[in-house]
Each structure stands twice: as C-alpha cells, then as structure tokens.
Design a protein that fits this description.
Length: 161
Amino acid sequence: MSNGHNSHENDEHELRVSKIRDGTVIDHVRGGQALNVLAILGIDGTRGEELSIGMNVPSDRLARKDIVKVEGRELSQDEVDVLSLIAPDATINIVRDYDVVEKHRVERPDIVEGVLSCPNASCITTGTEPVTSRFSVFEDGVRCSYCETIVREDIASLIDT
Ligand code: CTP
Ligand code: ZN
C-alpha cells in the first residue's frame, strides 16, 4: 500500500503515540475528529480509561489524520457503524498482546436506527411517543426518515448518549 519511504516516515511519526497491549486502535480518523470519536464511544477519561490520542498527525492516506488508542476495550460492530458517520476512512485494529489480530475498515450503513436524535423539535421521534429514530446515511450527511430533516454538519452532536 505504501512505498518504503512513506512507511519509514510513518513509523517515525507513529512513535509519538506508544503501542498498546490489548485494545483497539482507531486509525485514519479524519483530522480533527478524534474527540468526536471518543464522544461517540462514551469515553471521557473520567473513569480511568487508558487512552492515547494523536491529532492532525501526517498520514500517507489522508492529508492529516487523527488516531485513537483505547487500552482494554474491543469495539462492537454497532460502535464501529456509528464511527463511520464521522470517520468514514477509519481503520479499526484489534490488538491482543501487542499484535494486531484483526483489522477492518469501517463501513457506512445505509440506515442507522436509535443512534442519532433528530434536531427537529416537532419530529415524531423527539416527542413523548416511543418512536425509535431512523436516519438514512448519504455520502455527505444523514436524513431523518420521519421528518426528512437533513443534517450535514456536526453529525456527532446528534448522537444519543
Ligand atoms: N498499533 C498499536 N499498538 C500495537 C500494534 C499496533 O498502537 N500493539 C497501532 C499502530 O501504531 C498503527 C495501527 O495500530 O497505528 C495499525 O498497526 P499496523 O497494522 O501494524 O500498522 P500499518 O500496517 O501501518 O497499518 P495500516 O496499513 O492500516 O496503516
Ligand atoms: Zn426527524
């Protein structure tokens, strides 16, 4: 994938954030999105979670990338699906005993249910009726299946926590 020169450069840059023993490395996150990735995962460090974050580091695949390393936690498919909304190029690496034992690219689902809350106050999903939110996912945004509201910016702020 990368030529020798680039991978050598990358190795040097990656030393900024140390290797983990067991857990998940979320790599190739769009520059500037690392804190949103943590918000989606519900990780804020207050419960003693061991994590490392690199932001806006040089990358050969993206102009600048973020990288998030979470020790002691393997992400579920649901979590990965939601991450795809803000980090469509991310690679999820599961690490056990210092080795990468699984690597997958995130995939954007066509539909996300019960994950985002609609910003439209008069949407049926935001009322008192128990209606599960449902959004169609597009290349550049999401659309509420009930009220058709389209959101392109700051999708992370819609995430139900
Ligand atoms: N990593 C880590 N701790 C480990 C093993 C790997 O933090 N014990 C990190 C590496 O620093 C890298 C990512 O996990 O950011 C993926 O590791 P690896 O597959 O070894 O690197 P690459 O081959 O460069 O990955 P890719 O091709 O996906 O860029
Ligand atoms: Zn709606």
